[in-house]
Design goal:
This protein has about 400 residues and is of the alpha/beta class. It has two domains: about 5-10 and about 260-385, Aspartate Aminotransferase, domain 1 (Alpha-Beta Complex); about 15-255, 3-Layer(aba) Sandwich (Aspartate Aminotransferase, domain 2). Helices cover about 45% and strands about 15% of the residues. It contains twelve helices and 14 strands. It has helices spanning about 15-25, 35-55, 70-85, 100-115, 130-140, 160-170, 190-195, 245-280, 310-320, 340-345, 350, 365-385, and strands at about 5, 65, 95, 120, 145-150, 175-180, 200, 215, 285, 300-305, 320-325, 330, 335, 355-360. Strands 2-8-7-6-5-3-4 form a seven-stranded mixed β-sheet, with helices on both faces. About 50% of the residues are buried. Bound molecules: pyridoxal-5'-phosphate.
Length: about 400
């Protein structure tokens, strides 16, 4: 059975150019911190990767801190900036949104539970968009240590007004961090215009290897390290640098940067086709998040199928050769409704009946045609299973 992969937002195929870069860089022996010739050649590979990613994003190479991925970058930005800003009686209030990825929500909640941080979660509307007015009022009230709002949501694809948010934060002198893991490679990231303090990126969402990412951070921003050791990355991140992984990440970054507009257009076309095909074959299906267009990631589609458990539907589609995802996390084997959908005001039952289809390189309208040949039957069986 040929499998149809519609879970590119979870992770996507390694690009051959990234694999090649990994193999070439991986041939070198030498620690990038060693002073001998082999060490210096490893260092050269790392610095070339840093310069290449910086050029793709229009930032200075010194702003690129390599990490082990999106989760680490978010932890470093949030804890590191909070610790630096709140030291010596500084502000302890963090503003974020209720629909962040757990790699933002959990560090923020940890700071609340263990370090006396005060957290405000911005409200979102029924499409998952945050309230900029609410943010303005909070900034006017003062004493904010950090604002962290994701560029685009991983479940329902909502693109946040990050330019407006960043400009507001700048006006009030408050650092702004954005998790751009899902946005990178899908839409144009104008980091020059954005002027955020810190931006999180992950390699495996753009066709690079898993386990590497970057935090793009203003070199003037004070950050307290989360991990302590050799201080390899500007003294704020420790650990032996991995020339093979960072150069594969740079290769993927260059590819997505050069093709982002054409890719977005191609994805939008398939996205629209998938939405209308699903609505035609399962009329009760309900699209969550913004309508396809400028407010939504071009590769994201998220439906609720009333009467189903998302997990049952996922397994039925899996048996029919289709890989997709639910937004929900399982706690002790019990499916939990997605915190994102609940924050948008979606009913618990409908929230549990959802699936995300995410497109990527290689996705086609034929994949959608195959999906809609098996979907109505899978939905019918999942509804029946749910009613017994
Ligand atoms: C929005 C978002 N942030 C952070 C992460 C975590 O990234 P990583 O897998 O590189 O740790 C993900 C991964 O799913 C994500 O979608």
């Amino acid at each position: 059975m040929t499998r149809i992969y519609l879970d590119h937002a979870a992770t996507t195929h390694l690009r051959p150019e990234a694999a090649q870069a990994w193999i070439v860089a991986g041939q070198h022996v030498g620690n990038a911190s060693s002073l001998h010739t082999s060490g210096r050649s490893a260092r050269r590979i790392v610095e070339q990767a840093r310069e290449s990613i910086a050029e793709d994003l229009g930032v200075r190479p010194s702003a690129v801190i390599f990490t082990a991925g999106g989760t680490e970058s978010n932890n470093l930005a949030i804890k590191g900036i909070f610790w630096a800003r709140s030291a010596d009686g500084g502000p302890r209030h963090i503003v974020t949104s209720a629909i962040e990825h757990h790699a933002v929500l959990d560090p923020v909640l940890w700071l609340r539970d263990h370090q006396d941080a005060e957290i405000t979660f911005l409200d979102v509307d029924s499409t998952g968009k945050v309230s900029v007015d609410q943010l303005r009022s909070l900034l006017q009230a003062g004493d904010i240590a950090l604002v962290s709002i994701m560029w685009a949501n991983n479940e329902i694809g909502t693109i946040q007004p990050v330019q407006e948010i960043s400009a507001l934060c700048q006006e009030f002198g408050v650092p702004f961090h954005t998790d751009a893991v899902q946005a990178f490679g899908q839409i144009n990231l104008d980091l020059v215009g954005l002027k955020a303090t810190a931006v999180t990126l992950s390699s495996h969402k753009i066709g690079g290897p898993v386990g590497v990412g970057a935090l793009i951070i203003d070199p003037h921003e004070k950050v307290v390290p989360v991990t302590h050791g050799g201080g390899q990355e500007r003294e704020i991140r420790s650990g032996t640098l991995d020339p093979a992984s960072v150069s594969a990440f740079a290769a993927a970054s260059r590819l997505v940067t050069l093709s982002v507009d054409a890719h977005a257009q191609e994805m939008r076309d398939i996205q629209q086709y998938l939405v209308s095909s699903v609505e035609a074959c399962v009329p009760e299906a309900r699209l969550n998040g913004p309508a396809p267009g400028v407010a939504r990631l071009p590769n994201n589609i998220h439906f609720s199928f009333p009467g189903c458990e998302g997990d049952s539907l996922l397994m039925l589609l899996d048996a029919a050769g289709i890989d997709c995802s639910t937004g929900s996390a399982c706690t002790a084997g019990i499916p939990e409704p997605s915190h994102v959908l609940l924050a948008m005001g979606v009913d618990q039952k409908i929230a549990r009946a959802s699936l995300r289809f995410s497109l990527g390189r290689g996705s086609s309208k034929e994949d959608v045609d195959h999906l809609v040949t098996v979907l109505p039957n899978a939905v019918e069986r999942a509804v029946r299973a749910g009613s017994v």
